[in-house]
Specification:
heterodimer; A: 207 residues; mainly alpha; 1% strand; B: 98 residues; alpha+beta; Arc Repressor Mutant, subunit A; 5 helices; 3 strands; 53% helix
């Protein structure tokens, strides 16, 4: 051990410090600076608002298009005003996640609007497809992130989607849709937000 | 007794090692992000980035994000190789404790 201490004055303690520095920086580099949890909560609340409108308010055919449009506007405003927590970081994982949510998320919105406007919104099979799409996006995202809680969210979407094909009364369909939305979107989003706050606290504590 | 490996002085510098470790996990990163993550100053980071560029370990690209100029850095294959070699040397010096 003392051999290398004589070579150029490098000590073991210094080398160990370098190793710790590398580990810390590699972890920092891989850490996403983006905040996603609120998006799940926002979309979950939008689903709830749209369902509430269709149950309790007139002009039900407008419920989904109006709620989705309103949510998109809020989404855009919040996203553009969100403070940047770091500089430009661009890695393959981020690209993959963005691609999954942009393509499948966009598909879900288009599909939902098309189903409602075409008058198929009350048929369980069409609504079950929405749940499967959501499960698909969460499932792929969970695989990319190797994050089992999101895998569990995907399983909830798929489970409720499957059940919807067997339990087809209006009450059952509504209950399944709301259960999937609450567990797979709102609860999951709140959990993600909690994790984001927790991680930010960890970084500050080590700063 | 086997000869002990030498540590690449360009990689061994504390701030340069921090930057290379950050860049190894991303495709590219801008100057501001690197400065914030390493907690260094503009001047110090700029000087160290120049040394890394001269060694061929990072490549720099300037572009505009809207109207704001942005300096982006990415690790070159030579930089990855140098970092890998540095880690191997560390392993040997620390007696395979890594």
């Amino acid at each position: 051990m003392a051999d290398f201490e004589r070579q150029g004055g490098v000590t073991r303690a210094e080398l160990v410090q370098r190793v710790a520095l590398m580990e810390e920086m590699i972890a920092e580099g891989r850490q996403s600076t983006a905040r996603y949890g609120w998006m799940f909560v926002l979309w979950g609340l939008t689903y709830f608002a749209a369902i509430a409108w269709t149950v309790a308010l007139p002009y039900t055919e407008w419920a989904w298009p109006v709620c989705i449009a309103a949510c998109s506007v809020v989404f855009g405003i919040v996203r553009t005003r969100q403070p940047r927590t770091g500089g430009k970081i661009d890695n393959l994982r981020r690209h993959s996640l963005d691609a999954v949510w942009q393509v499948i998320g966009g598909g879900i919105v288009l599909y939902l609007i098309a189903v409602i406007v075409s008058g198929h919104g009350k048929e369980p099979g069409y609504l079950a497809a929405v749940l499967f799409f959501n499960g698909l996006a969460n499932g792929v995202s969970a695989r990319i992130l190797r994050w089992w809680p999101q895998g569990a969210a995907a399983a909830i979407w798929w489970g409720c989607g499957t059940a919807m094909l067997f339990f087809t009364t209006r009450t059952e369909v509504l209950a399944l849709f709301l259960t999937a939305t609450f567990c797979g979107m709102i609860l999951f989003g709140l959990y993600a937000m909690w994790l984001e706050r927790h991680d930010a606290g960890m970084v500050q504590a080590h700063a | 007794m086997p000869e002990l490996p030498e540590l690449d002085p360009v990689v061994h510098g504390k701030l340069r090692l921090a930057v290379l470790s950050l860049l190894v996990g991303v495709e590219e990163a801008d100057f501001t992000w690197l400065r914030d993550k390493t907690g260094s100053t503009d001047g110090n980071l700029g000087a160290q980035m120049m040394k890394l560029e001269e060694a061929g370990y990072v490549a720099m690209q300037k572009r505009f994000a809207g109207r704001k100029p942005q300096t982006l850095y990415r690790m070159t294959p030579a930089g990855r190789k140098a970092l890998a070699k540095y880690v191997s040397a560390l392993k040997l010096l620390l007696g395979g404790a890594l």
